[in-house]
């Protein structure tokens, strides 16, 4: 029976609450929701929804890399946005990262996200 493994990297923002960046259980990696924080400074990117989405996906990618996974290993993505009017912009940026083998996904509009950001993304990755 495999144990769960807690994973954190300095290449992604430190957790801003009582959680870890990722948990590996068996061959599955669960990456906590990422917001557009710059890892080195913990400052928010808020110049545009596109810039926020790029930073969020860079943070996701950094955690995946630290754990030995890639974007191609992602089987499920959950996107939370503060305004459904931003869906097209977020989707356009997302498509630049998930070019092949796109994961299952949902996008949900929510009232408020941590630090009042416009986008948060969590993923589940798997590889044998």
Q: Can you count the beta strands?
A: 6
pLDDT averaged over residues: 96
* CATH homologous group name: RutC-like
> What is the helix fraction of residues, given as a range?
10-25%
- Category from helices, strands and their pairing: alpha+beta
Note the gap between the termini.
15 Å
Outline the biggest β-sheet: 6 strands, mixed
Number of helices: 2
Low-confidence stretches: none
The tally of structural domains comes to 1
Q: Give the strand order of the largest sheet, numbering strands 1, 2, ... along the chain.
A: 1-2-3-6-4-5
Q: Nearest-angstrom radius of gyration?
A: 14 Å
Instruction: Give the percentage of residues in beta strands.
Output: 25-35%
CATH architecture: 2-Layer Sandwich
Question: In CATH terms, what is the fold-level topology?
Answer: 60s Ribosomal Protein L30, Chain: A
Q: What would the principal axes of the Cα set say about the shape?
A: globular
CATH class: Alpha Beta
* Helix-strand string: EEEHEHEE
Description:
The chain has a six-stranded mixed beta sheet with strand order 1-2-3-6-4-5, covered by helices on one side. Helix 1 (49-67) runs parallel beside helix 2 (87-97). The protein has helices spanning 49-67, 87-97, and strands at residues 4-7, 22-25, 28-34, 74-81, 104-109, 119-126. With 128 residues, it is α+β, with helices and mostly antiparallel strands. The chain has a single domain, classed as RutC-like (60s Ribosomal Protein L30, Chain: A, 2-Layer Sandwich), CATH 3.30.1330. A hairpin with a 2-residue loop joins strand 2 (22-25) and strand 3 (28-34). It is globular, with a radius of gyration of 14 Å. It comes from Sphingobacterium gobiense. InterPro entries: RidA, RutC-like_sf, YjgF/YER057c/UK114. Belongs to the RutC family. GO terms for molecular function: deaminase activity.
């Amino acid at each position: 029976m495999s144990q769960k493994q807690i994973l954190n990297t300095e290449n992604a923002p430190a957790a801003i609450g009582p959680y870890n960046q990722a948990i590996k259980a068996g061959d599955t990696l669960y990456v906590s929701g990422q917001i557009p924080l710059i890892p080195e400074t913990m400052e928010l990117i808020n110049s545009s929804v596109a810039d926020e989405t790029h930073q969020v996906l860079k943070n996701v990618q950094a955690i995946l890399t630290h754990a030995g996974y890639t974007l191609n290993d992602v089987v499920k993505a959950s996107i939370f946005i503060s305004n459904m009017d931003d869906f097209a912009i977020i989707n356009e940026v997302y498509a630049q990262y998930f070019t092949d083998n796109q994961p299952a996904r949902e996008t949900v509009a929510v009232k408020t996200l941590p630090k009042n950001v416009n986008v948060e993304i969590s993923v589940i990755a798997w590889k044998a």
